[in-house]
Amino acid sequence: MLAPILRNKQNYLNNFVYFCFVLSKELAILKGIHPGAVLERELKKRKLAKGLFALSINEYPQTLSAIINGKRNMNTPLAMKIEDRLGIEEGFFMTLQIFYDIAEEKKRSLKGEHPDLSILRPVLFWDTEMGKIDWQRNKAAVIERVFERGNEEERNEITRFYGQSAVKEILTRNTRTNK
Known about the structure:
This protein has 179 residues and is mostly helical. 68% of the residues lie in helices and 0% in strands. It starts with a helix and ends with a helix.
């Protein structure tokens, strides 16, 4: 009598683990993207007009446009209406909103963080203003460029800033890719 219950629990657990694995891979791709951008893509894919879709879920078209344009955050009641109407897994858009909020907070907290710019020669980054570089988002490109064209002092500064393990990982990955 206990065996079927345990088997059902095991099936439930296996299905839950599989669901989490699939969802985490899907969300990993979308992390940091505003849910409005994903919604816009979904509406285009289904050939649905934004305004008519907004009215079909009893929302103002301006509200939906503001979310799609990233000027307004997704809220739970609206996310539930959208997910229900589009047949999307419940909680999907709010999960995207949370990941977007985390990415934005990281950007704000890292805004002033950059390597010591007095050590890096501007000629290394001739194609951009050094003050406008997103040092975290462009980490791989910065490391590759400094290790390809920089002097020892510049390489040391980049290693200090990003850490030896991150530099080694990126340079190793780059070496494997170029073979």
